[in-house]
Design brief:
Among the domains are: 117 residues, no CATH class; 44 residues, no CATH class; 86 residues, no CATH class; 137 residues, no CATH class; 118 residues, no CATH class; 32 residues. The two termini are 24 Å apart. Helices cover 12% and strands 45% of the residues. It has 10 helices and 65 strands. Helix 1 packs antiparallel against helix 10. It is mostly beta strands and 983 residues long. Pfam families: Beta-prop_EMC1_N, EMC1_C. Component of the ER membrane protein complex (EMC). Keywords: Endoplasmic reticulum, Glycoprotein, Membrane, Signal, Transmembrane, Transmembrane helix. This is ER membrane protein complex subunit 1. It comes from Nicotiana tabacum.
Length: 983
């Protein structure tokens, strides 16, 4: 009885442990989530009132956010979406954030403290135009602050309290580009000024109370204008002439227009180059950038232009800021190597500086792109200034009192490509001090965990335990682990910056602004395209570091020159770069490596020539041996054509380059433009591992997967169906899907969906493809699956034949032989719209697959592939149930527990990346958009390892207790046996 009571107590103790420690200390152990906002376009400070000091910003990622000025943290933010571009922001009445978006079509008011939307107004117009927002503080109508908006050719006046439209004035019929709205102080009229037909200056005087047009003035300038108008006062503006060599001063007092033209060479001496008028709003002057210097031109009351100063190496100028009665200041930024100089000047006294400060920034941040300034009152009652600086790499800095208060790596909100790299192998020879320190931390951590296990830990101890687990040295080491969980995510951002992110805790290991992707005279519009594995040395054979190849171009055109950059993954150094190359239309990683394990790549230019990299004799010899086995395909969406290509011969005679090769077109599939349009394609990953080709069904039959890596999924729709969902009736809408062999161009399978429409999102893995689309007839989204099987191996089902070796499983396959294939398909309703799709990947391909679906709610949903099995039936047999086939339903289930991101959102979700770990049961998942999210998944549970929450201490206690119980039981048994013998 005593033993039973002891075991029962032990069971109850272990059960109570699991109930108390229900994953509370596991938060953040296997996943991390980082929030960003993107490159800042506009910023408005709110620091006048007591309480939290903040700055409200809008970004190129269409994010509106409120940031804490002390730490740079996000108070609140909203991501408006790809089609809702933010045009302007401002603060009204000290409590509303006003945003204008969608080309001046949508005006919203957000509550400043918490970001809740107060009201929303839709502004309609007759034609597209630039969008202007103005929230004057001294302009009211019936005790209500007025908001003026120009967009879509119409001028609107709205109430700042509820967003009601007070009046509307249509200016579209005048064919004018309105550029500024002006309210002369003390007046009940507003000016709307702009340019018509590039040579006509237009000025409208409008009654602010009812929108009545009081006066319209127009005057033509013989030389014409170029660029935007720069407003310097309530009745004066400056603009460049059409040649860009002269400045034109415009006065429009009470509608009377006067021009004064001055040659820039007469104002600024010893300066040559094209002039650019900066858009900064300066009181009484304009900033003109000529070459690398910035000249400040003052506009007098009479409209004359006078040069004030020319300052070299000025990178950015802020708008003017009122900081005391009658005084306005502005900031300018100069670069000197890694030093940045901030100068605050006032137009009243140019020789004196309100502030001069310098600070150092990391070289990988590049140049300053924008600066916004704000003033505050110091303890000695003097004026101080802070500067919000946007860098070339899209990062955001706050500079105050000569130091960087905080910085944000917001360039990570615009990742365009991702690859991974293994960490270095842990080396021998660790110092004794490090071992002693690690031993002490290990003992301390285990003592605290033991206290937690015995329920003796205080709340402070529990917090320490959680912190130790989150900051575990095992998790954040810079060496690879035996499970393959620790890796480097190499990400390329839109700014041309490459960063390495540790998968353990999401920290940035190194960052590098690539020199080849920075704007220069020879490359005006550089942009990155893809990252490729360049050199992946085997750690047992080579001591060299792995490296990646970053590919880009110098423009958007197909014939733009290419850029290549080679980066050391461990050091974060640019090994070499090649700029102004031939054009790059396609990059084909070849399955060959040289003696130092550099992977061969074939770069296809716009003319169809292939260029081999690396450019070494060894690479040429390897490539020549495989010349007849290199094929690729191209998809010409605009021309509605698929083409297959092959390497033909060396093109030394035409170009004189040993590493250049001609290509030939092998096949083409032309879709008639009047009946079909290509909208989506998908293919298998080159590095995908398939564990077995055979699939045993419930009736003991064997099916063989058709797992050719040359298969391409293509989706087309009828021309009427290319618009938005619902823009066509079901009878006129068709969706067609194809499976095409990219070596021969043979169409292996074609299927149609009548009454269906795109967009189509597809994922291809092993022998199956899953695609998502919209069913117009059912008014619901659908997901369909196609599985393709090889019938040429259908005879290999006899076990005796397999044992005797009389089978054709090892026979060579050729894409030129007509494959005997069959397909199985099924469609299901799905309740969510989809942004992106991916599939889990494991090291050996044994673990069952899961679909990772990026939903319209910016979350990642894991859906077991078994739900998309085309063999599902309404009443499966017992054998099919044992095989794991789920009964057929018309809809795919969505369980709350299936959300990989839990309650988190990956705002602006764009892509999901899956990477296999060394542990077969586990796959690594990285989702990126405006936010970043990383986690580990086990689609078939962690059948090959112990879970993270496994209690080794409890296991040890259980073993010790059982040993003691066995020993005590043995003693009691011996005593009882001895007593019976004495009887």
């Amino acid at each position: 009885m005593a033993i039973r009571a002891f075991l029962l107590l032990l069971i109850l103790f272990s059960s109570s442990y699991y109930a108390v420690a229900l994953y509370e200390d596991q938060v953040g152990l296997m996943d991390w989530h980082q929030q960003y906002i993107g490159k800042v376009k506009n910023a408005v400070f709110q620091t006048q009132k007591a309480g939290r000091k903040r700055v409200v910003v809008s970004t190129e990622e269409n994010v509106i956010a409120s940031l804490d000025l002390r730490h740079g943290e996000i108070f609140w933010r909203h991501v408006l979406g790809d089609n809702d571009t933010i045009d302007a922001i401002d603060i009204s009445m000290g409590k509303y954030v006003i945003t204008l978006s969608s080309g001046g079509s949508i005006l919203r008011a957000w509550n400043l403290p918490d970001g809740q939307m107060v009201w929303e107004s839709f502004l309609r117009g007759s034609k597209p135009s630039r969008a202007l927002l103005w929230t004057p503080t001294n302009l009211k109508a019936d005790k209500d602050n007025v908001i003026l908006v120009y967009g879509n050719g119409c001028l609107h006046s709205l109430s700042s309290i509820d967003g009601d439209i007070l009046w509307k004035k249509d200016l579209s019929h005048k064919s004018i580009d309105i550029q500024h709205l002006i309210h002369p102080e003390g007046s009940e009229t507003i000016y709307a000024i702009g340019v018509g037909d590039l040579s006509q200056f237009e000025a409208y005087i409008i009654n602010v109370r009812n929108g009545e047009l009081l006066k319209h003035s127009s005057m033509s300038f013989p030389g014409g204008f170029s660029g935007d108008i720069s407003l310097v006062a309530s009745d004066k503006a400056v603009v460049l002439d059409s040649s860009g060599s002269s400045l034109v001063s415009i006065s429009f007092t009470e509608g009377e227009i006067k021009f004064q033209q001055v040659d820039i060479a007469n104002l600024v001496q010893h300066i040559s180059g094209s002039a650019v008028l900066l858009p900064s709003k300066l009181e009484g002057m304009v900033a003109v950038k000529i070459g690398k210097s910035l000249s400040f031109i003052k506009v007098t009351n009479e409209g004359r232009l006078e040069a004030v100063d020319t300052i070299p190496h000025v990178e950015a100028v802020s708008d003017s800021l009122p900081f005391s009665e009658g005084q306005r200041g502005f900031g300018l930024i100069q670069h000197d190597g890694t030093d940045i100089h901030l100068t605050i000047k006032t137009g009243n006294d140019w020789k004196s500086h309100l502030l001069e400060e310098s600070f150092k920034v990391d070289q990988h941040r590049g140049l300053v792109h924008k600066v916004f300034i704000n003033n505050y009152i110091r303890t000695d009652r003097t004026y101080g200034f802070r500067a919000l600086i946007v860098m070339e790499d899209h990062s955001l800095l706050l500079m105050q009192q000569g130091a960087i208060v905080w910085n944000r790596e917001d360039g990570l909100a615009s990742i365009i490509d991702v690859t991974t790299s293994e960490l270095p192998v842990e080396k021998d020879g660790v110092s004794v001090a490090k071992v002693e320190h690690s031993l002490f931390e290990w003992l301390k951590g285990h003592l605290l965990k033991l206290k937690g296990t015995l329920m003796l830990a205080t709340p402070d101890d529990i917090a320490v335990i959680q912190r130790l687990r989150l900051q575990s040295a095992e998790k954040s080491k810079m060496t690879r682990d035996h499970n393959g969980f620790r890796k480097l995510l190499i990400v390329l951002t839109r700014a041309g910056k490459l960063s390495a992110i540790h998968t353990g805790d999401g920290r940035i290991v190194w960052s590098l602004l690539l020199n080849a992707f920075r704007k220069s005279v020879t490359c005006e519009n550089p942009r990155g395209l893809k990252i490729h594995q360049w050199q992946v040395p085997h750690h047992h054979a080579l001591d060299e570091n792995p490296s990646v190849l970053v590919v880009g171009t110098c423009g958007l055109n197909s014939d733009a020159s290419g850029i290549l950059s080679f980066i050391d993954v461990y050091k974060g150094e640019e090994l070499n770069y090649l700029a102004t190359l031939h054009s790059i239309a396609q990059v084909i990683p070849l399955p060959f490596t040289d003696s130092i394990e550099q992977r061969l790549h074939l770069l296809i230019d716009a003319e169809g020539y292939g260029h081999l990299f690396p450019r070494t004799p060894e690479a040429i010899s390897i490539f020549q041996e495989e010349l007849g086995n290199i094929y690729w395909y191209s998809v010409e969406v605009n021309n509605n054509v698929l083409r297959g290509h092959a390497v033909k011969k060396n093109c030394v005679s035409e170009i004189g380059d040993d590493y250049c090769f001609e290509s030939s077109d092998l096949w083409s599939v032309v879709f008639p433009s009047d009946s079909e349009r290509i909208i989506a394609t998908s293919t298998r990953k080159l590095n995908e591992v398939v564990h077995t080709q055979a699939k045993v069904t419930s009736d003991q039959d064997v099916s063989y997967k058709y797992i050719s890596k040359n298969l391409l999924f293509v989706a087309t729709v009828t021309p009427k169906s290319t618009g938005e969902i619902g823009s066509v009736i079901p009878e006129d809408s068709w969706l067609f899907v194809y499976l095409v062999d990219t070596v021969t161009g043979r169409v292996l399978h074609r299927m149609s969906h009548h009454g269906s429409q795109g967009p189509v999102h597809a994922v291809f893995s092993e022998n199956w493809v899953v695609y998502h689309y919209f069913n117009l007839r059912a008014h619901r989204y659908e997901m369909s699956v196609i599985e393709i099987y090889d019938q040429s191996r259908a005879d290999n089902k006899d076990v005796l034949t397999l044992v005797l070796g009389k089978h054709n499983l090892t026979a060579a396959l050729s894409s030129y032989s007509r494959p005997e294939v069959i397909t199985k398909s099924q469609s299901y309703f799905f309740s969510h719209s989809v942004k992106t799709m991916a599939v889990t990947a494991t090291a050996k391909g044994i673990t069952s697959r899961q679909l990772l679906i990026g939903t319209i709610g910016d979350q990642v949903l894991a859906l077991d592939k078994r739900f998309l099995d085309p063999r599902r039936t309404v009443n499966p047999t017992q054998a099919e149930k044992e095989e794991g086939i789920i009964p057929l339903t018309d809809s795919l289930p969505i369980m709350p527990q299936a959300y990989v991101t839990h309650a988190l959102k990956v705002e602006g979700l764009r892509n999901i990346i899956t990477v296999p770990a060394k542990l077969e049961s586990t796959t690594l998942v990285f989702a990126h958009g405006v936010d970043l999210f990383f986690t580990r998944l086990a689609p078939s549970r962690t059948y090959d390892s112990l879970t993270e929450d496994f209690s080794y201490a409890l296991l040890l206690i259980t073993i010790v207790a059982l040993v003691i119980a066995i020993f005590v039981t043995w003693i009691w048994s011996e005593r009882k046996e001895l007593e019976e013998k004495w009887r």
